[in-house]
């Protein structure tokens, strides 16, 4: 009897630290057309001339992979889709990269794992800016440590510099992430390694990386351990600031989206993959708020913008990968109502 009593106590303790599944799921406003292989991670470009013509980019993760481009109705934009990529994994987007003395461009960056490199393209013209690819983790001594997976871009409000923060499929318990400064040279981009940082529990892997540029933080998912937080500015050092969310996820902690409701305020929305939920944390304090149900299955990556895109998306759009070769698109206004009620 004692054995079973202890088991009951353990199960009760485990359940008590996680909310029950929310009763009312939020349904998507649109679902993208299917990719060929395996969707993984999205990034959203807001069209500065006409926000209703913004583009959702999403990775299709396989040897014959692609970066798909979708309109806000979820239809594939073939002219903006990048095919023939060797297992593209995570993707991110940033604005106002100074490509020469007179021009700034939006850039799309993603990890191309099987080529041990990252790729950088201009948006929306989709021109390569990387001379065919930028090698990463070149000093790694183990072959598996050279395979990039997660990526996030940081545009420093302090220096104006653009950085790529890159993680890998497998890595050491210290210095799992490398941060590269992206520099323009004759209309192309090169990457200069500026630091190595980031602890790893060793439990599974690190994939999802997100940067809150306005507040100056990098977040990443140590998948079976917790969400780790570091300074984004290299000059602030490599000391870990915080670990949170350790009792809020069933197993894998996945995609991280930074929802900005003001310059500093808003939410971190993080995929609780095996429960099919998203855990919401306060952007400034990182305190847990609640779990929400968006009906996706086995979600890896997610992204959000809070700009007015018109139509259903006047308060922005939230995009999440679904485990059936597609992405789900949600009015962020609906999600905001659920978070704040």
TrEMBL record:
Segment forming the signal sequence: none
Domain BPP as annotated: residue spans: 16-339
Superkingdom of the source species: Bacteria
Database matches in InterPro entries: 6-blade_b-propeller_TolB-like, B-propeller_Phytase
GO MF entry, a single one: inositol hexakisphosphate 3-phosphatase activity
Pfam family, one: Phytase
Protein name: Phytase
Organism: Flavobacterium humi
Organism ancestry: Bacteria, Pseudomonadati, Bacteroidota, Flavobacteriia, Flavobacteriales
């Amino acid at each position: 009897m004692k054995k079973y009593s202890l088991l009951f106590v353990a199960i009760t303790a485990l359940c008590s630290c996680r909310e029950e599944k929310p009763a009312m799921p939020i349904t998507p406003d649109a679902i993208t057309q299917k990719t060929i292989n395996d969707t993984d991670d999205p990034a959203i470009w807001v069209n500065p001339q006409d926000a209703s013509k913004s583009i959702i980019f999403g990775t299709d993760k396989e040897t014959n992979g692609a970066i798909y481009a979708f309109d806000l109705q979820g239809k594939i934009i073939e002219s903006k889709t990048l095919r023939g990529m060797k297992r593209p994994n995570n993707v991110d987007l940033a604005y106002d990269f100074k490509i020469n003395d007179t021009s700034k461009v939006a850039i799309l960056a993603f990890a191309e794992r099987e080529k041990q490199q990252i790729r950088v393209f201009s948006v929306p013209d989709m021109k390569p800016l990387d001379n065919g690819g930028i090698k990463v983790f070149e000093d790694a001594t183990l072959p598996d440590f050279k395979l990039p997976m997660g990526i996030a871009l940081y545009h420093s409000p302090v220096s104006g510099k653009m950085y790529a923060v890159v993680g890998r499929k497998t890595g050491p318990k210290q210095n799992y992430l490398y941060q590269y400064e992206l520099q323009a040279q004759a209309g192309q981009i090169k990457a200069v390694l500026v630091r190595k940082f980031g602890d790893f529990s060793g439990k599974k892997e690190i994939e999802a990386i997100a940067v809150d540029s306005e507040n100056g933080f990098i977040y990443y998912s140590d998948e079976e351990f917790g969400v780790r937080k570091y300074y984004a500015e290299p000059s602030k050092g490599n000391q870990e600031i915080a670990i949170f969310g350790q009792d809020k996820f069933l197993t894998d902690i996945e995609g991280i989206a930074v929802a900005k409701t003001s310059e500093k305020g808003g939410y971190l929305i993080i995929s609780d993959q095996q429960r099919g939920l998203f855990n919401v944390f306060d952007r400034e304090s990182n305190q847990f708020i609640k779990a929400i149900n968006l009906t996706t299955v086995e979600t890896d990556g997610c992204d959000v913008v809070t700009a007015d895109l018109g139509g259903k998306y006047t308060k922005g759009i939230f995009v999440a990968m679904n485990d059936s070769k597609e992405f789900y698109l949600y009015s962020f206004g609906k999600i905001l109502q659920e978070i704040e009620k």
